[in-house]
Amino acid sequence: MKILVLNCGSSSIKYQLFNMDDQSVIAKGGVEKLGMKGSFLKHKHADGRQIVFEGEILDHKSGIEYILGVLTSSKYGCLESLEEIDAVGHRVVHGGEYFASSELINDEVIDALVKCTDLAPLHNPPNLKGIYAMEELIPGIPQVGVFDTAFHQTMEAQSYMYGIPYVLYEKYGIRRYGFHGTSHRYVTKRACELLGVEYENQKIISCHLGNGASIAAVKDGKSFDTSMGFTPIEGLVMGTRSGDLDIGVVTYIMEKEELGLKSANTLFNKHSGMLGLSGVSSDMREIEDAKDSGNERAKMALDIYNYHVRKYIGSYIAGMNGLDVLIFTGGIGENADTTRAGVASELDYLGVKLDESKNNGFRSEGVISTDDSPVKVVVVPTNEELMIALDTEKKVKEHVKL
After folding, report:
1. Could you say which residues are annotated as the site Transition state stabilizer (predicted)?
2. Is residue 373 part of a domain?
């Protein structure tokens, strides 16, 4: 079975084509600057060949037409025809309370996604555009929606409810939804495979650390709690997002700086976090370099970052009454050994024993805790695209059986 995975953003479309017989990537790439001057498609074949196509790519439909065209191109492609694509899997950011698992897309699912647009106004509309485009370009092809929020639907009210009037939850669905669910689901399962332990009998904390960052507590194979909330701004200090913030601070700054809602939203989402604290960059590598050069604000920002990660880990250990596996993933989690050390080295009293010799320079998949560590510390590169492909394959096969 060949499955095309699409991740449609507001100005980009990322794609990967999988051969599910061996879970290999046949080709991958993306459209950038969609609808803007200088738009282009970058395509990479499994054999290493790469090509960049520049052109006027006005919308998601034309962007996907470009993708399908290059996949079937006699010169650059890897398919004889579009009939070789058996199904399409879509990354969908928000499924609200409608979806606790991936779903085969039909009119009912689309109606629910439209209703979720208010919850993710920047993300769900382009996700839907990708679905509509595939319906037009390859009529009748099975499509599956894989929702970032679905994994966290197993949380109980103690984890997802806010201390606001209950009527606001009933009217508007205001609650913690959490994000990065596909990543957390993939890495927690993969870590248990590496360790040879039963997924449904573990207490796991997954740290997805990238420009956007979240932590998930997974107990007995189900999401128990997670740091992102109603929106992705809550939780950890991130690249440009503030993370947890006193609501009084928000209203105070809005009053003093005479900011409207749009400007305040931009301030806390685009100009805060590590960028705002360090004054250097949102890129952890550049902040590390600045710290090494003696920049005190960069050092402060890194200390704050590591502390907030440790604080969430500690709270989730308390919530689950223990911990068996600690996972680092995401661009920072997978590559920044100094961040992993800054977080894990001060958790030894909780049974986390980091092996410095294993951690230093580690950029792969594996265990970086000592052999006698009660809590296993694991680095797992995330693979959301493969998770989407696996879910798509499963849902399509279930549908065929029906």
Report:
1. 180, 241
2. yes
- What residues make up the domain containing 47? 2-147
Helices 337-344, 296-320: inter-axial angle, 10-degree rounding: 50
Question: Into how many domains does the chain fold?
Answer: 2
Same domain, 264 and 378: yes
pLDDT on residue 55: 87
List beta partners, residue 216: 206, 226
Is 209 annotated in a binding site? The answer is yes
Residue 333 assigned ligand-binding role: yes
210 marked as binding residue: yes
Q: What angle do CA 343, 94, 271 make, to 5 degrees?
A: 55
Give the closest residue to 359 by CA, choosing from 384, 334, 381.
Answer: 334
Q: What is the per-residue pLDDT for 402?
A: 54
CB atoms within 10 A of CB 125: 15
The first and second tokens of residue 270, run together, are 């685009």
Q: 83 labelled as ligand-binding?
A: no
Catalytic residue among 148, 324, 337, 391: 148
Considering the entire predicted model, what is its pTM?
Answer: 0.95
Q: Which CA distances in Å does 157 have to 221, 244, 279?
A: 18, 20, 38
Judgement on whether residues 371 and 291 belong to the same structural domain of the protein: yes
Average pLDDT of adjacent 10-residue blocks, the chain of 402 residues? 96 97 97 94 92 92 96 92 97 96 97 94 94 97 97 98 98 97 98 98 98 97 98 96 97 98 96 98 97 98 98 98 98 97 95 97 97 98 98 93 61
283 marked as part of a ligand binding site: yes
Q: Which residues pair with 89 in a beta bridge?
A: 5, 144
Q: Is 101 in contact with 131 (CB distance < 8 Å)?
A: no
Q: What are the CA-CA distances from residue 163 to residues 2, 158, 173, 176, 309 (Å)? A: 46, 10, 13, 11, 23
DSSP-derived pairing of the beta strands 13-19 and 24-32: antiparallel
The CATH number covering residue 212 comes to: 3.30.420.40
Q: Which residues of 311-331 are buried (b: 16+ CB within 10 A; e: fewer)?
A: ebbbebbeebeebbbbbbbbb
| Strand order across the beta sheet in which 24-32 lies | 50-54, 40-45, 24-32, 13-19, 2-8, 87-92, 143-147, 103-104
Shared domain for 19 and 128, answered yes or no, is: yes
